[in-house]
Structure to design on (836 residues):
């Protein structure tokens, strides 16, 4: 029982990290991305690749994952600068599809459809993370760290720049805000931090494979952010908890055939998205207003 | 073009607009405009609706690109420079529709102007904190500092718009109908604020329709009609000119 | 000869994409609603046709009718029951998009409960390929697809230029605020936009059912093509979206001559990316740069 809970918590932490970082660009910069799973994947594959071929140092893997993810996010930033949020969704969709294709086809690096297995446990300052409890601690620390970082950013000058641009881009420009720099930075931060979720995943599972980095995952993450509420910092975490609790809760309902569990779960959170947007656009945490507050 | 009064020539010319043209497709919005804005002087741009006053502002601030002609600020050409860079060079503006950062508080609206956007995080210096308090006091918004801009009363929003400019270090202020709709007491406060900043050396150019405002505020008035600068001089000279009055009030 | 075959296939696919994309573009251009659920409309239409024609065996015409009714009803009801309510409160792009997305998820999964997750097809003799010239296999379906597209676009053109409602719809797209002034009702016009836009998926849905088959998740691909085509064609231009749809159909098929099938979907998005970066206004649209 304990192991089951611990496992759930580790996975929850990973989802929360991904949802938090997605909310950073969606809720604050108005950049609606369906490509978050790609950065999750880049983080995971990079960590796996480095660990399998070079070193199992956690720090090195994290650094490599974050850097590569931030770099690739430039492919997202470029269209984000050119078109408004509404039309940008399509570009992110494109990146997601291209990403999945690359993950599946670049056999020499990603292991193709089979993925990469046998990833060694990570090492930090001589300590090797092997047990579930180890990973739970690590996940907790990383999640807390990301919460702190995003909080600092959002409540500080960068957050104000983001919100100024969101409220009136022309006025923001008239008062010295370099819109391009701000948007690019926010995309890079979002992708870089999301990669940490991937690093955690790769080491925890000791195996990565393209199946979790697909559009379905990006949609799931978007659902978490939307249901939890985009205008707040805690919203995505709550959203992650709710969406994850669904399958567990559903198993207790006797009349649902087990094969259809996943389907019912999706119907529920799909319907939740529709109903929430109609009556409570701020999400579970945000309430009726969608306007943000730090 | 009437010559500017001699007392104004004594101030250094900071903004030079030369032979500015702007056309949108077939529409000629601005034709051959020459304008000098000296330091410490309040210039008012008047003219009928659609004369091109806001278009002129947009070209100075970089929001629009001129079809031809030049704009020089402190000797440097502004052609082709992005609006945010021009803002950092010391030119600030307000908008006719205010464009406040509506979902942010009064304090945040002011703070954000003082911060550089290219950094992920910056410490709030003592100088910034002092400036914030000073601006809040001068615009009498201190007790509203944590209210969202969208929740403010009309006059308070106008003052917040001014506060944003005051918080930066701009030396040229382009104000687009900043005082319209203000009650008399607020208006007096507004005028006093503008005059005090002009005395500190800020160059101010205002677009205004209300002639009382024009008379009380302006050191010099420029009359724009159909994209052309017809006259520039003291407010008396311009406003008493029957020919210009006819254009302004519509019987040509 | 391979190229010719791929070209023909591309035209067939492209014609269908053009119709679907035009439907999405119509709805978006006229109501400014990012109707991501357009893919769901397509899925519903396809499965309804399958149910009535292949399972219940009602006959071709009634099945087509049922299909059109289902598609139109879904679009209009989604608008009336969901989008309109959202717009009453605050209706930002994001909220509408999120709701639309949620609807897609619900529909997709409901369909998979009823019909299963696998592929279903409608078998007709029309989908059997005939060797027209050595090496070139074309099914009568291909011609039907192209003809259906042409007919639909001709009808649309007539609608927009010669009928009151069509002209009103165009006005709605240009300037929603002005509509009330002329005594027109923006709400009912919006419903018409959804009706017409949604029904446009019908030919594509039926033809897809008869050729490559249906599965509950196909709405995703359709939605992506619709959105991409609307952008590449230029926001606000029906003609552009249709052309872009054709372009994507051709690209998807012709690229098979050069790359593996897994990459052909990526080709569509590479094209989209290039347009966004170098020509965000698309073929015909007004520039939509921020």
């Amino acid at each position: 029982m304990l192991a089951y809970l611990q496992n759930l918590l580790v996975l929850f932490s990973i989802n929360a990290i991904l949802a938090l970082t997605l909310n950073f660009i969606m809720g604050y910069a108005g950049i609606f991305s369906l490509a978050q799973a790609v950065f999750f994947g880049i983080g995971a594959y990079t960590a796996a690749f480095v660990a399998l071929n070079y070193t199992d140092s956690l720090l090195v893997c994290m650094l490599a994952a974050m850097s590569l993810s931030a770099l690739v996010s430039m492919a997202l930033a470029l269209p984000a600068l050119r078109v408004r949020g509404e039309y940008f969704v399509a570009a992110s969709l494109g990146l997601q599809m291209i990403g999945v294709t690359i993950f599946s086809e670049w056999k020499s690096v990603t292991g193709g459809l089979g993925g990469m297995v046998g990833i060694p446990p990570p090492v930090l300052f001589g300590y090797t993370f092997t047990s579930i409890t180890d990973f739970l601690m690590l996940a907790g620390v990383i999640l807390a760290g990301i919460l702190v970082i995003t909080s600092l950013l959002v409540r500080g000058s960068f957050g104000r720049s983001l919100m100024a641009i969101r409220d009136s881009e022309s006025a923001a420009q008239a008062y010295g805000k370099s819109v391009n720099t701000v948007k690019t930075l926010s995309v890079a931060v979002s992708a870089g931090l999301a990669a940490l979720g991937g690093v955690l995943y790769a080491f925890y599972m000791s195996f990565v494979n393209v199946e979790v980095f697909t559009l379905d995952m990006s949609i799931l993450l978007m659902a978490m952010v939307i249901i939890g509420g985009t205008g707040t910092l805690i919203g995505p975490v709550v959203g992650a908890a709710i969406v994850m609790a669904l399958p567990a809760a559903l198993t207790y309902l006797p009349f649902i055939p087990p094969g259809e569990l996943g389907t019912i779960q999706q119907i529920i959170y799909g319907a939740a998205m529709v109903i929430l947007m109609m009556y409570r656009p701020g999400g579970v945490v945000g309430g009726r207003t969608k306007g943000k507050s730090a | 073009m009437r010559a500017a009064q001699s007392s104004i020539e004594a101030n250094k010319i900071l903004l030079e607009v030369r032979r500015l043209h702007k056309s949108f497709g077939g529409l000629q919005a601005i034709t051959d405009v020459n304008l000098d804005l000296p330091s410490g002087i309040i210039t008012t741009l008047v003219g009928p609706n659609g004369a091109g006053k806001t278009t002129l502002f947009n070209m100075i601030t970089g929001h629009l690109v001129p079809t031809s002609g030049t704009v020089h600020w402190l000797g440097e050409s502004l052609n082709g420079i992005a609006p945010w860079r021009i803002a950092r060079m010391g030119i600030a503006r307000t908008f006719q529709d205010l464009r406040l950062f509506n979902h942010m508080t009064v304090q945040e609206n002011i703070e954000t102007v003082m911060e550089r956007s290219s950094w992920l995080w910056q410490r709030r210096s003592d100088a910034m904190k002092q400036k914030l308090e000073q601006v809040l006091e001068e615009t009498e918004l201190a007790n509203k500092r944590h209210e969202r801009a969208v929740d403010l009363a009309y006059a308070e929003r106008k003052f917040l718009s001014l506060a944003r400019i005051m918080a930066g270090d701009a030396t040229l202020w382009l104000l687009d109908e900043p005082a319209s709709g203000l009650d008399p007491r607020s208006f007096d406060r507004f005028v006093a604020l503008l005059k005090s900043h002009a005395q500190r050396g800020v160059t101010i150019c205002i677009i205004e329709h209300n002639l009382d405002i024009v008379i009380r505020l302006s050191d010099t008035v420029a009359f724009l009609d159909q994209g052309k600068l017809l006259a520039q001089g003291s407010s008396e000279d311009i406003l008493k000119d029957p020919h210009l009055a006819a254009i302004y009030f519509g019987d040509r | 000869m391979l190229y010719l075959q791929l070209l023909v296939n591309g035209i067939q696919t492209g014609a269908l994409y053009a119709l679907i994309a035009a439907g999405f573009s119509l709805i978006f251009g006229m109501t400014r609603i990012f109707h991501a659920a357009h893919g769901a409309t397509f899925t519903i239409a396809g499965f309804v046709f399958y149910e009535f024609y292949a399972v219940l065996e009602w006959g071709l015409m009634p099945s087509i009718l049922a299909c059109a009714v289902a598609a139109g009803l879904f679009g209009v009801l989604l608008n009336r029951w969901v989008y309109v309510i959202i717009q009453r409160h605050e209706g930002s792009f994001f909220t509408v998009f999120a709701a639309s997305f949620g609807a897609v998820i619900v529909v997709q999964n409901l369909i998979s409960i009823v019909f299963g997750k696998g592929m279903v097809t409608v078998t007709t003799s029309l989908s059997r390929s005939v060797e027209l010239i050595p090496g070139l296999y074309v099914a009568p379906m291909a011609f039907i697809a192209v003809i259906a597209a042409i007919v639909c676009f001709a009808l649309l053109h007539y609608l927009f230029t010669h009928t009151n409602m069509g002209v009103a719809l165009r006005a709605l797209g240009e300037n929603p605020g002005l509509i009330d002034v002329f005594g027109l009702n923006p709400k009912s016009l919006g419903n018409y936009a959804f009706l017409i836009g949604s029904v446009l998926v019908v030919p594509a849905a039926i033809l897809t059912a008869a050729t490559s088959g249906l599965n509950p998740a196909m709405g995703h691909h359709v939605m992506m093509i619709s959105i991409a085509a609307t952008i590449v064609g230029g926001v606000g231009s029906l003609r552009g979206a249709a052309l872009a749809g054709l372009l994507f159909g051709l690209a998807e098929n012709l690229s098979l001559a050069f790359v593996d099938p897994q990459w052909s979907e990526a080709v569509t998005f590479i094209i989209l990316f290039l347009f966004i970066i170098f020509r965000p206004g698309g073929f015909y649209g007004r520039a939509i740069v921020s």
